[in-house]
Write a structure and sequence with these properties.
Layout lengths: L22 H10 L7 H44 L1 H9 L4 H45 L10 H18 L1 H9 L2 H6 L2
Helix pairs in contact: 2-5, 2-6, 4-5, 4-6
Length: 190
């Protein structure tokens, strides 16, 4: 017929967009013309939501672990003060500055946090290596390559610094308690 534009002969049309940020706008414009569209953008959004949910779940687990670790460090430091009450009393009687006593316990709790951070980082690196190794076996069969799990150096350093900070924060109140101990009562304490 004379009205034949030739469009009915096409099953599918592929288009390229210059910028990835414009994909959703082009997608909406094509839908506005009455055509069905498919783009990787429609796949990317559900994947991003799923990744955000996974990150939220893992973040919640990390927060709970952090709280338990902080309570454990606080408990360890309080027990350390009880066991070293006489030592603290002698240090006070000898005229040692209170800040030195506080810093002694803060340094100890910070070191506990640092050691926990080192163990946690080593475990994370081992899990990351195992994930990448197992995936590389599967990817070599399909001809794909690349690591899915990476721990950047800045993240490793930040996690260690954060572990030390949490350790020192958890040891802050026990350190204040050590500062407030009465020297005479501490020396008499068996």
């Amino acid at each position: 017929s004379d009205n034949n534009t030739g469009l009915e002969n096409y099953q599918q049309v592929k288009g390229k967009v210059a910028d990835i940020d414009l994909v959703s706008q082009v997608d909406q414009a094509i839908k506005g013309m009455g055509f069905e569209t498919y783009s990787l953008d429609s796949v990317r959004e559900p994947m991003q939501k799923q990744m955000q949910q996974q990150q939220l779940f893992l973040g919640s687990l990390a927060a709970i672990s952090l709280l338990v670790a902080a309570i454990g460090i606080t408990n360890t430091m309080i027990m350390s003060i009880y066991e070293r009450t006489k030592e603290i009393g002698i240090i006070k009687v000898l005229g040692c500055d209170m800040k030195v006593i506080r810093n002694m316990f803060l340094l100890e709790s910070g070191f506990i946090g640092f050691m926990g951070g080192v163990v946690g980082l080593a475990f994370s690196e081992a899990v990351s290596f195992a994930i990448n190794h197992l995936l590389n076996i599967g990817q070599s069969m399909t001809g794909m390559s690349g690591n899915i799990s990476r721990i950047p150096l800045w993240l490793a350093a930040a996690s260690l610094a954060f572990a030390v900070f949490i350790g020192m924060a958890a040891g802050f109140f026990p350190a204040l308690r050590a500062m407030k101990l009465s020297p005479l009562a501490a020396i008499r304490n068996e």
